[in-house]
Task: structure prediction
Amino acid sequence: MPIPTSTIQQYLDSLLRIRDVPDDANAVNGLQVENSGTVTSLIAAVDASQATIDQVAAGLSDRRPLLLVHHGLFWDGNIPVTGRRYRRLRALLLHDIALYSAHIPLDMHPEYGNNVSLARMLGVDIEGWYAVHRGIPIGIYGSLALGRDALVAQLNASLGANAVLIPGGPDFVSRIGIITGGAGNMIAAARDAGLDTFITGEGAHHTYFDAMEWGINVIFAGHYATEKLGVQRLAAHLAEKFSLPWEFHDHDTGL
Result:
């Protein structure tokens, strides 16, 4: 049964606190592209890339999908609708594909977010939040009794990642923090929270010395790999709530 696009939009806006959670201006969280009015399926993806949009369009048949992404269309700012901006928008509009994007609101969501989803996948006993970003805590921390090499192996097996370990902390992990994506600048926050291990997606060169000199294990498990869980959990929730089919389109960047 078709569901009004506006009904799903309003539900997501409220669930994810789209208007309350601060984010980069270019995130443009919420419904980024509307369609003719109703949705008959859900498709989750990490990025609103041309490859994602083209794959959705190629598999449409008679469906009218809502494409749910973590990284939306407008990261390159307020620019003319030319080049790749035009090509992406043209494909969405031509095929009546609605697009909804949630960045920080999805990262930090306590039930369907990237951070909590990764923590639960690893079996972390979640204790609370840390690491303030734009005035709000976004990181998950908790306890996990596991060797750090075994933790890296679990990340690789579960996420299809190729994680890099900076072995600045103990061999055996006990207190772990997670901020998915590009949070290499949050190593000091993990240290200050008394954690011995920090998992994120990626970081700059100098983060090697941060980890080694501050005595904390840092694991870079990939920006894409660490941020593909939230959209899947959220899409599965929407599918159950609105009785819609859903699928995940995987376009791994390897980064």
The first helix runs from residue 5 to 15. The chain has ten helices and 13 strands. The mean pLDDT is 96. The CA atoms of residues 180 and 226 lie 5 Å apart.
